[in-house]
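Late entry, adenosine-5'-triphosphate complex.
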Amino acid sequence: MQVTDSLTKIWINWELKALVPVAGVLVVGVLAFAMVTLDLRADERHKVLLVATGGAAIICAATLVVLAVLIQWPLSELQAKIAQLRDGNLTVAVGFADRQDEIGELGRNFNEMVRQMRENQEEIQRLHRSQISRAEHLVTLGEVAAGLAHEVRNPLAGIAGVFEIIAAELSASSPSREVLDDARQELNNLNRFVSDLLSCARPKPPEFTPADINMTAEHAIRLARQQAGGLAGQIHFKRGKGLPLVEHDVSQINQVLLNLLLNATHEIDSGGEVRLDISHIGDEVVLSVADTGQGIVPEHLPHIFRPFFTTKGKGTGLGLSLARRVAEAHAGSIDVESTVGMGAKFTLRLPVRQPQPSADITGGELQIDRETSRR
Ligand SMILES: Nc1ncnc2c1ncn2[C@@H]1O[C@H](COP(=O)(O)OP(=O)(O)OP(=O)(O)O)[C@@H](O)[C@H]1O
Ligand SMILES: [Mg+2]
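Prediction complete; structure with ligand written out below:
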C-alpha cells in the first residue's frame, strides 16, 4: 500500500509520458527494420539503420516541439494567469481561448469563470456599499426615534398618574369608569410601544443580577393579565421547581416575557389558553410561552423576528425583534415552533450564569450609547 502511495506521488513530466509510447513504437519499428535487413551487406545495413534511427530521432523531436507549442505554452500561460488571479487580479484572461480545440475550450471556460468572479465581486461591493449607507441611515433614524420616545415617556407617566387620581375619585358605579379603563389600556399600549421603540433604538446593555426567574415571570404574568381583559383567566403559569438564581436583567426579561404573553393572548379567543412554563435543563433555564391560537403561516416564519414586521393593524412589529436582541445579549436564544391551526410556542433559553466576558453585543451597544450621550 505504501509502495503504491509513494509511486503515485512521483512527479513525471507530461512530455515524458507522451514521448515514451512514441519512442517505444519507433524503437520497435527500428528493431523490426533491423531484422528485415539481416540479409543485406554489413555496410549497407549500417547505412539503412543509421537512416532509420535518425528518422526516429527526428520524429521524436518534432513530436516534442508540436506538443510544446500545442500544450506546454498554453498551460504555462494558464498557470501564470491563475497566480495573478490568486493575487486578486480579476481582469486576467488567457490568449489561447480562440483556439478551436480542447485547449481553446479550457481557455474559454477559464475566461468565463474569471468574468463571473469579477461580476460577483462587483455585486458584493455594491451590496456592501448600500448596506453601509442603510446602516448609517438606520442609526440616524434610531437616534431620532430614541429622542422622540424619551420625550414622550415623561408626559405619559404624568397622564397615568392623573388617571390614577381620577379613578380613585370616581365612585365604583360611575359609568365613566369603563371609559377610564379603556383609556388606561390605551395608555399601557402606548407606554409599551414607547418602551419597545426606545429599547430598539438605543439598546441598553443588560444589568445582570442573580435573581429568581420565577418572580420575574410572575410579574410579567400579572401585567399580561391586567392587559388581557376578559381573557386574563386563560393565562396559566407553571413555576419552575428547584431553580437556581439566574443571572439576568430583570426588567429586560420581564419586557420580553410580557411581549410574548401579549402576542399569545392576542391569538386566542374565549376557548383558548396561553401557558408560560419554566424548567431547568443543565446550565440553562427554559421559558416557553405557548398558545392555542391559529399559529404562524410558514411564509411569515422567516420574518417575524425582523424589526417592524407585523401582521396586526395596530402592531409595531418591534416585540419579537427586541426579544431576540435581549436573549442574545443574555448569551441565550429564542426560537419558535408553530403548527397552523394549532398554535405557536416561543422558547426562551437563558444560561444560569453569564459567560465571562459577557456577550460582544453588549460592547457594541455600549459604544452606541456613549456616542449618543456625548451629543
Ligand atoms: N403567538 C403568536 N401566534 C401567531 N403569530 C404570532 C405570535 N407571536 C407573534 N406572531 C406574529 O409575529 C408578528 C411580529 O410580532 P411582534 O411581537 O414583533 O410585533 P406585533 O405583535 O405585530 O406588534 P406589537 O408587539 O408592537 O404589538 C406578529 O404581527 C404576528 O404576525
Ligand atoms: Mg407583539
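The first helix runs from residue 2 to 9. Will revisit in the morning.
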